Amino acid sequence: MTLAGKSVIITGAATGIGRGIAECVLKEGADVTVVGRREEPLRELAERFGDAVHVVAQDVAAPGAGTRIVAAATTRFGGIDAVVNNAGLARFGALDAADPALFDAMFAVNVRAPAELIRCALPHLRERRGSVVNISSVGGVLAMPGRAFYGATKAALNSLTRSLAVEFAPDVRVNAILPGPVLTPMWDGTGLDAAGAERLRAGLIASTPMGRFGEDREIGRWVCLLIDPEVSGWVTGALMPVDGGRTA
Ligand SMILES: NC(=O)c1ccc[n+]([C@@H]2O[C@H](COP(=O)([O-])OP(=O)(O)OC[C@H]3O[C@@H](n4cnc5c(N)ncnc54)[C@H](OP(=O)(O)O)[C@@H]3O)[C@@H](O)[C@H]2O)c1
């Protein structure tokens, strides 16, 4: 497998799963436009991988973000072969205690922004017969008590993935990876208190047959495989669990 010469956009590439994806895709030889709100952690990738990295400090949910990200990638790398929608917002808590403003914020980052970035990138993806990989979650297919709205946004992203796969075929493939629990900074900002977060972590390990959290590079390698047309040229509309058996 090689992604040499391919131009890939990765959102939320500064930390956690996105960083693991960016490292794997860069090691396979691609040029990568890395997107996130904070510039500094993205710059660290550019320092390590040099000219193959183009840093775009951008909130994916801001008006006009898709247009700006696509313009940045095409200006720097001449086109787009793949879009990886990884940036996500996770706020947990029981529904009756939830702030409804968070529903809109989660929907904006987890569903509307990926749809808008795909829409803006579509002519370029069609030109190169490229693909989209959406980073969803097992939360989009499992019952998620205490995390219902987050799960609902990921179920919406799964639906988007399948519908667009058919809408864009045979020109552009659209797939999703559904990670199980991976230890990332996301777990520090869910809105749960320390005891609640610890209970959740212990419960997740107990309900994951492989008995451990996943690692970001274990998601990153699957993203590379889904981008590579030599491996996955006949794979579209797939919701691929990479989850230590949690949905088995
Ligand atoms: N960790 C898990 O167990 C797990 C499991 C299943 C699915 N997922 C999914 O995996 C994806 C990555 O999550 P993670 O665990 O790696 O979390 P993370 O470490 O918090 O990473 C999220 C990244 O997205 C960026 N981001 C957040 N909001 C953004 C926005 N509005 N615009 C641009 N960038 C934004 C953040 O950078 P800035 O703050 O600089 O913007 C950050 O680098 C998410 O979609 C999440 O739902 C995670």
Automatic annotation (TrEMBL):
Ranges of residues in domain Ketoreductase: 6-190
SUPFAM superfamilies assigned: NAD(P)-binding Rossmann-fold domains
Gene3D superfamilies attached to this UniProt entry: NAD(P)-binding Rossmann-like Domain
Short name of one Pfam family: adh_short_C2
Domain of life: Bacteria
Family: Belongs to the short-chain dehydrogenases/reductases (SDR) family.
Protein name, per record: Oxidoreductase, short-chain dehydrogenase/reductase family
Annotated source species: Streptomyces globisporus
